[in-house]
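Hallway conversation turned thread

IA: we were arguing at lunch whether anyone had actually written out Polyisoprenoid-binding protein end to end. Turns out nobody had. So, for the record, here is the sequence (184 residues) and right after it the structure tokens. Reply here if something looks off.
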Amino acid sequence: MTTATNLSELTGDYVIDAAHSRIGFVARHAMVTKVRGAFNEFDGKISIDGDNPAATSAQVVLKVASIDTRQAQRDEHLRNNDFLAADQYPEIKFVSTAAEQIDETTFRLTGDLTIKDVTRGLSIDFTFEGVAKDPFGNTRVGFEGSTTINRKDFGVTWNAALETGGVLVGEKVVLEFEISAIKS
């Protein structure tokens, strides 16, 4: 993998390779630890304009039913109406509305995140990890980024009080993106 110094080389349309990407989250649990999880099913596309990074765009769709925290009972709880209501709202969507280059390897995507039919604007800083030609002749790009949201802003409000004070689930959730995308 190499980092590109000439961004115009990256110009093109890309499809996120879900088999080599991870979209996950981290939330505080019982005030003492963190629970990590991911969405195992998602798709997305990125249109990169290396000559005009502001014209870059992206969209991602996560399948709520694919949530995986490595604990089946917790996953079912996250899918039900207390949290994400997967039957009623089967997808979480992000659609970019703006893009900017912060420095040589950092890019900021601003856009709309929709969870449970609530849409809020947010920004995600991504680090460009490089570009490579894989053994099958595909051009791949890699980006990693994260952002923090308050789950209550999206109508995800369930919680339980702890005997020792505090609550079972923290309000802040870190969304993590490790993206490998293939040029179309």
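OS: looked through it. The chain has a mean pLDDT of 94.
IA: good, adding that to the notes. The longest strand covers residues 118-133.
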